[in-house]
Amino acid sequence: MTTFELPIQIGKIEYTNDWPIYQHFDPQELSQPAVIHSDLPANLNRALLEDRLYITPVSSFAYATRSDDFWLLPGLSVSAKNAVGSILLFSRKPIAELGDGTIALTNTSATSVNLLKIILQKRYGFKPEYVSMNPNLDEMMERCDAALLIGDHAIEAARRDSGYIVTDLGQAWKEWTGYGMTFAVFAVNRKFAEVHAELVSEVAEQLRASKVRSLNDLTPVIADAQHKMGGDSAYWEHYFRQLWYDFGEQEQQGLGLYFQYAHELGLLDYEVHMQLWTDNTMTRVNE
């Protein structure tokens, strides 16, 4: 049987967007030694795909590239029913008028990059040139007609009021498809789950409990965000309330449509069939 090094590392997105899920989560309360590993989405994605991290939030697109190797934890995601507030396209003219120009892409999230490609090609028929750059808005716009930023980089750029037109990709997806968009899912390596089934269920349960407790009282999360990022409490209250942390039927359908479009455009090599971890799953892997 495969062994896994202790303490078990549990991934956490470095950006503020998943803080409510982790605010009241304490890995020391788990039955096995575990620690939180906080990192950028791209680094978490890479660690999961390279079998160096076994239970973590992960970019939805990164999960899709090897979906048969992972379970998804139910009831947990980083989604948005409408605007997301932190996945933003900055441009000099409206998105519907961008045509086939040059767009600078953040190098930190495949999900957002491919969401933009899907919207531009499937909705508007555009095939722009894409350039991957570090997430610096001024440098991006010096070279390109538009720039995509995500996470805290997007929040900071939007608060600067740079004068550019700002398109929220969560809102753009909602207006086009009628679905919210799931930007990150919580994935578990299947081989890891075979060995640590009880731990997987513990982590899922405690993260969901932390999420519920945080959303019932966002005060501690807002205070932490203000300390790190500045801004007033009303801004952060709105930011966290417009995000959605469940992963129910609607979220799964919206994400399934995203995967379908990605496959149609050749961004994914195969159709994705999402499979969720349940207590029945734990029973099966222990048999």
Automatic annotation (TrEMBL):
SUPFAM superfamilies named among the record's database cross-references: Periplasmic binding protein-like II
GO molecular function term, any single one: lyase activity
Pathway: Quinol/quinone metabolism; menaquinone biosynthesis
CDD domains: PBP2_Sco4506
Keyword Lyase: yes
Domain of life: Bacteria
InterPro entries tied to this protein: Menaquinone_biosynth, MqnA
Keywords: Lyase, Menaquinone biosynthesis
EC number, UniProt record: 4.2.1.151
Catalytic activity: chorismate = 3-[(1-carboxyvinyl)-oxy]benzoate + H2O
Enzyme category, top tier: lyase
Keyword Thylakoid included in the entry's annotation: no
One Pfam family recorded for the sequence: VitK2_biosynth
Function: Catalyzes the dehydration of chorismate into 3-[(1-carboxyvinyl)oxy]benzoate, a step in the biosynthesis of menaquinone (MK, vitamin K2).
Family, per entry: Belongs to the MqnA/MqnD family. MqnA subfamily.
Protein name in the entry: Chorismate dehydratase
Organism: Paenibacillus hunanensis
Record gene name: mqnA
